Amino acid sequence: MIYWHEHTWEEIKNLLDKIEAVILPIGSCEQHSLHLPLGMDTYSSIVLSEKIAEALNGKVLVLPPIWYGVSPHHMNFPGTITLSSETLISLVFDIAKSLKHHGVKKLIIINGHGGNTAPLTLALRKIREEIGLETVLVNPWELIRDVIMETLESSVWGHACEFETSEALVIIPDKVRINKIKKPELKEQKAPYMALWEKTKVVWPWNTDELTSTGSIGDPTKASREKGEKLFNAMLERTLEFITKFLEK
Fold first, then answer.
1. Which of 4, 25, 30, 185 is 20 to 30 A from 10, comparing alpha carbons?
2. CA pair distance 228, 240, nearest whole angstrom
3. What is the pLDDT of residues 45-91, one digit of tens each?
4. How far is CA 31 from CA 19, 35, 39, 82, 160, in A?
5. CA Rg value for the chain
6. First-to-last CA distance in the chain?
7. Percentage of residues in the chain with pLDDT exceeding 70?
8. Is the pLDDT confidence value at 249 over 80?
């Protein structure tokens, strides 16, 4: 059993000296255009976490996933549920505090949602300074920028796009509404450097409906299972490479 919550307390007690780390998958419950489920980001982090735990064969356990994230920018689309940054930081901190109490050595957060990155970064610092539990945050897409560039046809990607839809066709194919996949109309911005898909840009508190007509940022019509396999396998390989070395440290 790779999941923490499927064990009894006695089994966990006996495993604590054997496991080297625990993995916490975090995603979101937010709009993913017309064709992907609200839980896409969480499915992504869960499947990756499961594959890694299976590959490490008893060295790690996977904690119960967090299905909610920081998603205020998607709230103009029905179905989105958002946490405040403060809530996510507190939630992760309290989980880490419990793990430290039980003697867990290392915590690995696998994140499926870009909106969580800033609050989780703050949480890591708080955990280090106040608890002393060694904790790292993995944003898997950040590890494969080169693979993304060589795989995608689209120059614009980021949300319910060619990348994410291709991944979904591999990890949750039965949940993709194939007949709903639609190229969005990306909306022109008020001033230069405001488009999220530009390399040179300013920071502003955007809402998704100010950028796109469907909720997609990028073109999901270019997605394919073949691309998804290449992208997901690269994320798995590089995340596993990192975690293997991190556990040796």
1. 25
2. 18
3. 999 999 999 999 999 999 999 999 999 999 999 999 999 999 999 99
4. 36, 10, 8, 11, 9
5. 18
6. 25
7. 100
8. no
